[in-house]
Specification:
5 helices, mainly alpha, elongated
Length: 103
């Protein structure tokens, strides 16, 4: 057995001791993050609609909410890295559009 094989943890208990997340914990973390951000995005949509009734507002925040749902499903299916990139990129884009484009 080589030194690199000895350094890699094999079980979930060894991963916990090494300080990393197990795949199951990573999936759960992304699902929770997606769910929380979905609720936050819905709250921001309600506040924005109270101030400005616009189809653009509904479109931008509606797409952001759909993106949160996609992230939750990707995380449940084990695609956590892709889900993380989509969540951060998509929500940053949505909030940037809100700041730059929406009235």
């Amino acid at each position: 057995m080589s030194a690199s094989e000895q350094d890699t943890p094999d079980t979930e208990a060894e991963l916990d001791e090494a300080g990393g997340l197990t795949p199951k914990q990573a999936r759960l973390l992304r699902v929770v993050a997606g769910s929380v951000l979905l609720v936050v995005t819905a709250a921001v949509l309600v506040v924005r609609l109270a101030n400005h009734t616009s189809v653009l507002v509904v479109g931008v925040y509606g797409l952001a909410m759909i993106l949160c749902g996609v992230v939750i499903e990707l995380s449940r299916n084990g695609r956590t890295r892709l889900a993380t990139w989509l969540l951060t990129g998509g929500l940053l884009t949505a909030f940037a559009l809100d700041w730059l484009v929406l009235p």
